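TICKET #2291
ISSUE: user wants both folds in one file
ATTACHMENT 1:
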Amino acid sequence: MNKFERLKAKIKGYNKGSYYKMRLRDIGEEYSIYFELRRDGIRDIKYPKLHISGNTTPTRADLEAVERAREKQQYFDELYKNQELDSLNNLTKKKSKVIPFFESRRDSHKEKNTRKAWNNAIKHFREYAGEGITFQDINNDFCNEFRSYLLTKVNDYTTCTYFSIFKRMLNIATAKGIYIISPAHQIRNVKPETNRDFLTLEELRKLKDTEIIEKRKTMSPDVIRAFLFACYTGLRISDIINLKWENVVDKDFLNIKVTKTKRFLKNKLNETAKDILDDQKSEYPEREYIFRLPKGGNNINLHLKRWTEQAGITKHVTFHTARHTAACLSISGGNSLFATSKILGHSATKTTEIYAKLIDEEKYKAMDNFPKL
């Protein structure tokens, strides 16, 4: 047995009687140390950001890393032991009913759309589990089965939303000492394929030149201008609806508090966006809000459906298509992913990367359209 094998045997000895087992993961030229807990159907992993070389003869740094890992292992074990004791003391909490707790969490939200989503999640949970379900009835298997049930009732995207709310509720219950680790801790949510259709510059020009005639009157200019404005700013419909003239600073900048994220966003207006604002100001000089849209997203999207059909565009266009379009216009115009992410108000460029892929796909389709020699 060489010295590295003896070090592994030492780690194995540390694991005896420990809740969190010290593991080594081969990551090429070295090993990453991590801890794994498996208990009562729950799995938890912790990464202490410690590495060893894996040399046949461990270095001093390797030995020190293992000793630091041992200290962390003891810390995690003690923490888990205390949580387990707290859980026993909170047994009465675990016997309490879930739905009243679920509803109390819903009531803490003020946003109308957020409350609606929580209401729907509670409705499906009640239909699946019944009114009398308690926290002690919920384990890993229950969570998996509830997710599968949701998939039979609603589409992937909605399942993702409702199951995320359910997991959030369990995390809050865990923070209050009802669980040591949430029963849904290691359960992955559904990852739906989202529709990210976007409009090309040519299609936008077609739309701009197309006037929709309804049965009784011309389509509201507000819907047309609001959609095009969103295509050139990347704003969501919630922010378009709430947009006031006071949000326009020195005619060149938008300064808003984003409805979804609650973060402040300041963006420079491009010439197209400024032209649209000039048209709105000229036509509706007395308004406080810049755009006045029909009530309800479905009504707005119905207007857009008629408008795009009239323009000869076959893509499925909703108001959110404008945000996708803004991202693709930005990237195809030469802006970096970082700059585009800041325009859209993304917290990281990872969210923005999908639009670069969309641009590539559009480019590949264009290459297929080349005539054969």
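ATTACHMENT 2:
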Amino acid sequence: MSAPVNAVKDWFRNLFTAVRTVLEGMLVTLRVFGSTYDQKRRTFTEHFEYPELPAPVAARYRGFHRYDLTTCIACDQCSKACPVDCIYIGKERVSGGKGFQVTGFTIDYSKCMFCALCVEPCPVDCIFMGSTLDLSCYSRDGTIVDFARLPVDVAWGRATINPTAVAASKVIVEPVHGGPNQ
């Protein structure tokens, strides 16, 4: 007779322990919420005027890449180092000379994880991480950026890389500039 009574007591003890631990966890959550809540806190767009002005980023922020086609030697080291295979390099052998001419340097940002592993192996430092934090678009086609088709000031980082520049670069048939061997 005492075995079923002990089982019922254990069940109620376990139930009480479970409810108590959940309430303790919720109490911690409410305590942290209460200590960080600020009624005067503004939204992100009120604080930074985001679409009109770029939001400040840290000095070592790994944003969308910057790429200098004029110094690239098409060695494929960046695409070999990429762990998710999101870098595609199109190249042609230079006629009457040695080396390659870059015809396309495409990064698929739907795959890219912004790890910066592509920056380190580049022997001529033609690719590096930029400070652009947003490249919003309405289709997956907008996440594929061909830096060889972008204007020099956008690809090299003098102007911001934005969805409008990327969309305009998809209309151009020939690359804007050819690289060091042209």
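RESOLUTION: both attachments delivered.
EXTRA DETAIL ON ATTACHMENT 2: The beta strands are 65-67, 87-93, 100-108, 127-129, 144-146.
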